[in-house]
Amino acid sequence: MRSYDLIPIIKNALLAMFEHFETYLQANADFTKEELKQICAAATARKLRRRQFILQEGEICRFKIFVSSGLLKTARIKEDGTEYIMRFTAENTWTTDRESLENQTPSKLNIEALEDTELVLFTRAAAHELWQTIPTFRALSDKLIVNHLDASQERIFMNISYTSEEKYHSFITTYPDLFNRVPLHMVASYLGVSRETLSRIRHAQLKQ
Amino acid sequence: MRSYDLIPIIKNALLAMFEHFETYLQANADFTKEELKQICAAATARKLRRRQFILQEGEICRFKIFVSSGLLKTARIKEDGTEYIMRFTAENTWTTDRESLENQTPSKLNIEALEDTELVLFTRAAAHELWQTIPTFRALSDKLIVNHLDASQERIFMNISYTSEEKYHSFITTYPDLFNRVPLHMVASYLGVSRETLSRIRHAQLKQ
User: Fold this and answer.
1) CA–CA distance from B140 to each of B31, B135, B205 (Å)?
2) Count of CB contacts below 8 A, A vs B?
3) Looking only at Cα atoms, what is the longest distance across chain B?
4) For position B1, what pLDDT does the model report?
5) Does B146 reside within a domain?
6) Quick check: is B125 in a domain?
7) How many domains does chain B have?
8) In this structure, are residues B156 and A149 in contact, taking their beta carbons and an 8 Å threshold?
């Protein structure tokens, strides 16, 4: 059942969010029309304003989250209070705290909107139900998990082997669009490079 | 079909490797006796001497690899020729190059024995066949993938947020046994910390 009551939202905008999500699903797997209808019926739509959270540390993560438009930041706070950015999630990509969602344990993560953002959400129960009834949806979820694993392995290699300059260069060539939407100190936090170092690298590059 | 011809190996030692693997399987999922027999029949056993490779960069990865005894190092070479260690795989754990194995693409990884090592191997075809016929084996594989993903996320957080001292401390407390089996320069490579820095940290710690 779609939930229309989370925040006031006009029906047309809501429909647009689901249409966008359906387009994504059709582009990424062979779903029947009936399956698409079933998947969307199991989801809820939600809008976040910039700086609103969909998950905060200590809560149990409630949703698998698809971003229809906008941008989310997933971050984790170190014991000393410093925030480190685990990932950015832009249009047509997914995020969640898998561990918290599946094991129903308190999350270590904060997921916050960096822009006004439109989401399509699946509860754990809804996702598991769809996996049972729609093998293609299960296969798509499995593909997302192994893609995330492969990307994580690449990022670990970058983390341990790249110089700060190489990390910066890799980020701006891999995510040119994101680089223009995110403040430099957040890029530094994502890369594990100090803000000062990244400013210096950027300044040197702009001078060239 | 078990392959007995890879290197000369006495039959008793081979049986011991499979017995060890069966014990692992029984401890980690509810397999029937028939399923255990079927899984082991689909595998091959292999021994590696220290410094032998089971996968080299440029090859297409052929196996899902279970370590019965011994220790493997999975490494990737940066363009400048420096080796970085992606993971260590000790007894009762698995490794492979998932991307290369599933997509049949050339691997970027080298997997090498750091000690005399005993392996149980599954080809891609054998693994896929088992996934189809034994749902519990599929569930175990899925569990290994999400465990690897969760561990990768933890490692990324460590990579971007920990000081060199914290990385060293985390390694020796998380893997005390491994720390005694692996030379310090390999620990440095795994952590993404320079050999000199790690020596200095260790020296300071030993002095305390």
Assistant:
1) 10, 9, 40
2) 69
3) 57
4) 44
5) no
6) yes
7) 1
8) no
Q: What is the pLDDT of residues A90-138, one digit of tens each?
A: 999 999 999 999 999 999 999 999 999 999 999 999 999 999 999 999 9
Q: By CA distance, what is B150's nearest residue in A?
A: A99
Name residue B64's beta-bridge partners: B122
Task: Tell me the average pLDDT across A151-155.
Answer: 97
Q: Helix A11-28 crosses helix A33-41 at what angle (to 10 degrees)? A: 130
Does B142 fall in a domain? Answer: no
pLDDT of residue A44: 94
Distance separating alpha carbons of residues B51 and B112, to the nearest angstrom: 6
pLDDT of amino acid A208: 80
Element (H, E) at B90: strand B83-90
Cross-strand bridge partners of residue A85: A75
Return mean pLDDT, chain B: 93
Judge: A149–B86 Cβ closer than 8 Å, yes or no.
Answer: no
Range name among A132-141, A199-208, B76-85, B138-147 with the lowest pLDDT average: A199-208
Give the range of the structural domain holding residue B21, as residue numbers without chain letter.
3-136
- Residue B33: is its pLDDT beyond 90? yes
Contact yes or no for B22/B31 (Cβ under 8 A): no
In a domain, A200, yes or no: no
The share of chain B scoring above pLDDT 70, in percent, equals: 95
Rounded-to-5 percentages of helix, strand, coil across chain A: 50, 20, 25
Q: Are A149 and B153 within 8 A, CB to CB?
A: no
CATH number, domain of A27, equals 2.60.120.10
Catalogue the long-range contacts made by B148-157 (C-beta closer than 8 Å, 24 or more residues apart): B148/A149, B149/A98, B149/A145, B149/A148, B149/A149, B149/A152, B150/A98, B150/A99, B152/A149, B152/A152, B152/A153, B152/A156, B153/A86, B153/A99, B153/A152, B155/A156, B156/A86, B156/A152, B156/A155, B156/A156, B156/A159, B157/A76, B157/A84, B157/A86
Residues of B in contact with A145 (CB under 8 A): 145-146, 149
Extract the tokens encoding B54: 């089971």
Residues of A in contact with B142 (CB under 8 A): 142
Residues 136-155 of A with CB under 8 A from B: 142, 145-146, 148-150, 152-153, 155
Interchain proximity A153–B152, CB inside 8 Å:
yes
